[in-house]
Amino acid sequence: MKGLDGLFAPRGVAVIGASRNPAKLGAVMARSLSTYDAPLALVNPRDPELHGSVAEAVDSLGAPIDLAVVCVPAAAAADAVAEAAKAGASAALVCAGGFAEAGHPEFQRALLDVVDRHGIRLLGPNTSGFLVPGRGLTASFVPSVGSVPAGGVAVVAASGGVNHALSFLLAEAGYGVSLAVGLGNAADIDAADVLDHLLADPATKAVALHIESVADGSRLAGAVARLSARKPVVALVVGRNDVGAFAKSHTGALATSWRTTRGVLRQSGAVLVDDERQLVDAVGTLSMIRLAPALSPGVGVVTAQAGPGLLLLDGLRGAGIRVPVLADETQRRLGELLPPMTYQANPVDTGRPGPGFGEVVRTAGDDPEVDLVAVYALTEPDSVDLVSELSPQTASTPTVVAVGGSTADVSAVRSGLHERGYPVATSPAALTHAIRALVEDACLNNRRSVDEPIPPVAVPQGPWDEHQAKTVLDTLGVRTPSRAACNTPEEAHAALDTLGGPVALKILDATILHKTEIGGVHLGIRTHAELSEALDALGVQRVLVERMAPAGVDLIVGARRDPVFGPVVLVGLGGTTAEALADVAVRAAPLSAAEAASMTDELLGRALLDGWRGGPVLDRRDLARVVRALGQVLLDAPQVDEIEINPLRLTRDGLVALDAVITGKEQ
Amino acid sequence: MKGLDGLFAPRGVAVIGASRNPAKLGAVMARSLSTYDAPLALVNPRDPELHGSVAEAVDSLGAPIDLAVVCVPAAAAADAVAEAAKAGASAALVCAGGFAEAGHPEFQRALLDVVDRHGIRLLGPNTSGFLVPGRGLTASFVPSVGSVPAGGVAVVAASGGVNHALSFLLAEAGYGVSLAVGLGNAADIDAADVLDHLLADPATKAVALHIESVADGSRLAGAVARLSARKPVVALVVGRNDVGAFAKSHTGALATSWRTTRGVLRQSGAVLVDDERQLVDAVGTLSMIRLAPALSPGVGVVTAQAGPGLLLLDGLRGAGIRVPVLADETQRRLGELLPPMTYQANPVDTGRPGPGFGEVVRTAGDDPEVDLVAVYALTEPDSVDLVSELSPQTASTPTVVAVGGSTADVSAVRSGLHERGYPVATSPAALTHAIRALVEDACLNNRRSVDEPIPPVAVPQGPWDEHQAKTVLDTLGVRTPSRAACNTPEEAHAALDTLGGPVALKILDATILHKTEIGGVHLGIRTHAELSEALDALGVQRVLVERMAPAGVDLIVGARRDPVFGPVVLVGLGGTTAEALADVAVRAAPLSAAEAASMTDELLGRALLDGWRGGPVLDRRDLARVVRALGQVLLDAPQVDEIEINPLRLTRDGLVALDAVITGKEQ
């Protein structure tokens, strides 16, 4: 068997710890597995009516057992997995808890020893299992999840409970599942393994990824990048708020940094969502439609009722989605289809839906600026048959439909439209999240560019005072103010003459990271008298004299080593408010110029960078060069732990690094 | 008939413009109304088989007609309403569009003339109507909305389409409707009228309010305040983003200021939500449970699956909801009910739900810190019967349950739990929004305090320069720095001696609102030489010399006249980032001290006010005094248009107003 096929497409399955007591886990598992069309061996050495061992089952069934479903307590699990491996199984599922998450890392280590020794792959422990509805394979201790239909969405969830909850919610929303797996403690098989498995799974059209913790950041990022290049990936990351203690009790792992994980997943091409309902809206839609890569897809909105259309428009605008005014020619054609006085510029308000509704939708989709059509309509079976109106879909523009109405009406319309290839939502908010996901995916795909590699960066040994740090920036091509490092008052006075006033005077000492807080910075010095006074106040010999920079908008840009993701870069706005908001964008290094240029898009205060109150406008490419350069420092200079420019000032003349700190190993 | 009873409980109904062509509006309306148990007159003078007029119908039926449902074009609507009024009708519903929203304000004025002359009340025009399922009354041109069951939620929607969409979504979520109305152009009957009607409607337990525009802000605020004191009100306000042109085409009214409307609705006791799904989560739950007023209710979380429980906890923490560690005694009792190693501090993780699950929920609810229990469980019919576990609910602590599972399982559990008084959600996000609504409602109710009125404020005639504005602040008890208004350089130098340095020197001129931008402010002046230099640079006679304030966190506090809501007060953080985020809280004046003290809670950057990086901590009562005083200025001084303190600095010694501007009528 190749890869994870032994787990997800086994030629035979054994339940180790099977039981004839229907309340026992082993019996529940056997019941779940009974619908799978392959030999099923019930193994329990203490029950003479069941198989005594996996090996014996293989002999007596005359068929290979690829998957062992282990339903024994934690202390006995490793032996059971070993027994299965020896009998030829290539995969095991251990459902029981009682391992690392419950203070017994030794049981988990024992499992991993078996994995290492026998090469068997292990799902779990501490998970409710997985399901592959298309094969009738339900390896879960919640048998009712077998009712989830087959479909195009793969669920890769950190938690078995979330795996089931998502599968049920997808089914409720009219979507089916290709594969749904809860990773539990992920002692062996982790999200990256499953994502790589899905690359070649033809049934999987889009992937829902639920993340609680990350052990190996670059492995996960790589797997997401590989998969999202071929199939849309939508990610829900837990842990925005402090949930640490409970999270640890759950899987035995600390919650990962929410912000960094989200940043790196987005960089790897995953669409991000905020909760499981948005996840269902997004991944269900993406399992039916994927837009071509685009910088900013245009959305045409067609609504049969203005009020819900207004909710939709408000939501789309809030997500920064382009709803372009339709071309004159489109509006002319719509004018022929619609009553006068209806709004036709975009949104297109049809008034009550009637015959011709489909033609309106197609006409909006034909507009040259429209890459995607969003439709909202209440079902009114008496006045319009939405399914036949939207069938055949002669226009080729992708279209998502939201329908409101009675449960029965909505269900019928949804089935009909699904069959005709339309994703269907049931409310304006759901439609907003669906559209947002399609647009976001298209934008992320558009960003997959290959850049000129950055030449290697040479950084001298530390420690680095501000002057030395800025000299590193100079070599990186990052602009710094004219300056002079001075060892005597005389040198400082000479520097004032050379640089011209006003200047800043700063203490130069690599051991002082927060110069301002200890009074180590004097600004706006114009005269020798002022300089002398400031030098006296500092009371040290080694100082930096530096030209003052013009006013502007302050950014913070940095790079540091993340324990999970390795070198990461950060961009934020300066000032305490931005800091209090933790308004920071994070990416892993190296990163493409397009990726780096996109980072400010997610800052809450991004309006400040686009000519706020007549101020300067940020050239994103300039910022991208700085960000990539800092990332490269960490990639090329193992002695550097962190490099930060704070502030990096946006002025009318571009970006200037006003202060810089490098920390790391000192020699 | 009293109030709106003629509309919502008519003794007889006439359809004016009835038709026997089933596709016509008049026929559809008649079909909708056919289930109502009262005489229905079909009126159309051009059809001899129908009644020729409302008066004739009254005679021939021998019954009063309270409600006229007018299904004629805009140009003919006023005459039809007048005819009905003369025949004794006390209410009319005009569905047709083609009025103010479509460039025909004259037709709308004609309708209002009839309303004024005859005292008839008018719903619409330009609405799909309303429904009262408990009376079998569906006055809507979407007959399928008659399938929405009777229940405890009243829907008051700006838009007929949203009214229907919400009613359907409530039904889908297992809730019913007491009354659901779309206001359309709201030419006569507006949201305030319906809210006041609901005060005495015993079937209505909670109210969903959808707002697109507000004509009379204080009328709406008053109605929400009256109603929310008795029944929970949940509000969804449209127009966070720019949707202006489309909104105007919809109802003929401009979108109201989103931020101000939300602030005033919250102040009036309405729970705010961000989209229609949250609205359904919130109002459905509040129609079954209302918490006692409380400052910060504690939530006990019980989860049968840790993963969904983690999503829930993350959401609750993000909403600032208290999830207290359970008392030792509670944890001891839980320890007896649950397997070892499960998390029991709160959340309480039961592992798979089994018999005894209900006892765990009740035990968590008995904790002295727990005012509300949130439960998540996947339905596992084989292992636990959630309905019987949670029945009878011996504990008196309110409990909301979320269940995941197959559509059939969830539906059965939901019905059973609803019957037993539990609100039921179907996902962690839905449960989060339900809990948030209950907590928010309890907090808002807790804030309904009556304060000492503020003594009248006397403000001299303007114009007001900074010194005069600060003198007004002095009379209000708002602290300002020591200062001297000086008319000569000699006075300025004397002031420096009196005040001691460092001082700020500012131009004093009521016509200059942005002193800093024209170089009108010099800071940090310590010596007479510096003062002379600064005076020369200013080049004016009249200046303010003022003691410099210590460092701190800058706020902006102001009051202005809103065209819709009248005098409003605003609180925000200082600095361009906060400004770029529009991070401002708004309330109407007058406001209670508790209300004013709550304003900073909704600022994104609120962490800065609570000792950020060892800085000062804001006393909310101090800020409340300043905010209320500014509001009072606008209430008492008609000549003042706006008063703003920017910045109001939070220092270790409390709040100090560093700059103040008053604008208004100059004499």
TrEMBL record, chains A, B:
<dbReference type="InterPro" id="IPR036291">
    <property type="entry name" value="NAD(P)-bd_dom_sf"/>
</dbReference>
<protein>
    <submittedName>
        <fullName>CoA-binding protein</fullName>
    </submittedName>
</protein>
<dbReference type="InterPro" id="IPR011761">
    <property type="entry name" value="ATP-grasp"/>
</dbReference>
<dbReference type="GO" id="GO:0046872">
    <property type="term" value="F:metal ion binding"/>
</dbReference>
<dbReference type="Pfam" id="PF13607">
    <property type="entry name" value="Succ_CoA_lig"/>
</dbReference>
<keyword id="KW-0067">ATP-binding</keyword>
<dbReference type="Pfam" id="PF13380">
    <property type="entry name" value="CoA_binding_2"/>
</dbReference>
<dbReference type="InterPro" id="IPR016102">
    <property type="entry name" value="Succinyl-CoA_synth-like"/>
</dbReference>
<keyword id="KW-0547">Nucleotide-binding</keyword>
<feature type="domain" description="ATP-grasp">
    <location>
        <begin position="470"/>
        <end position="506"/>
    </location>
</feature>
<dbReference type="InterPro" id="IPR032875">
    <property type="entry name" value="Succ_CoA_lig_flav_dom"/>
</dbReference>
<dbReference type="InterPro" id="IPR003781">
    <property type="entry name" value="CoA-bd"/>
</dbReference>
<dbReference type="GO" id="GO:0005524">
    <property type="term" value="F:ATP binding"/>
</dbReference>
<dbReference type="InterPro" id="IPR013815">
    <property type="entry name" value="ATP_grasp_subdomain_1"/>
</dbReference>
<dbReference type="Pfam" id="PF13549">
    <property type="entry name" value="ATP-grasp_5"/>
</dbReference>
